Amino acid sequence: MSSLSSLLQSSTGLSLLRSIVDGRSYGLVLVDTKGDILFANAWFNDVMGSSGPALRGRRLYDFFCEMSHAELDTLLDNCQRGDAHHSESGEMFLMTPQGDKRCVKMTADGVFNATAQGNELLYIECHLSVS
After folding, report:
1. What is the three-class DSSP state of 37?
2. Is the pTM of this model over 0.70?
3. What residues contact 67, with CB distance under 8 A and at least 6 apart?
4. Residue 104's closest CA among 117, 94, 119?
5. pLDDT one-digit tens code per residue, 32-78
6. What percent of the chain has pLDDT over 70?
7. In which band, very low, low, confident or very high, does the pLDDT at 131 lie, cut at 50, 70 and 90?
8. Domain segments of the chain: what residues?
9. Which residues form the PAS domain (predicted)?
10. How far apart are CA 98 and CA 107, in angstroms?
11. Residue 44: which of 74, 24, 62, 61 has the closest Cα?
12. Coil, helix or strand at residue 119
């Protein structure tokens, strides 16, 4: 585990990250290379009706309608391989615990680890689409 991943697993690292990103008016999610959630800000937690600790370790795919999985694959693969530092999705659909679909546009950026191939973590922004 890298120092960046270790920091995100510590209570100090999570507290610092939360103080920086919880006031955002859009979702911020950090996932590892397997697509497991390491951190989700308050916006994403609220939309998903959950809390940060409850989401940690869950797969990002669990929160999207199956019809959005191919788009999510492309978004994450582009950044994970390091082929693109920044990748944007078309419209995708989050599925809330109440069964509601929320249309979102997502961007993903790789968090590069100089000691590894490609990107170690992916930083994802999730914006509600207004259509």
Report:
1. strand
2. yes
3. 93
4. 94
5. 777 888 888 888 888 888 866 788 888 988 988 888 888 888 877 77
6. 71
7. very low
8. 3-128
9. 13-83
10. 25
11. 24
12. strand
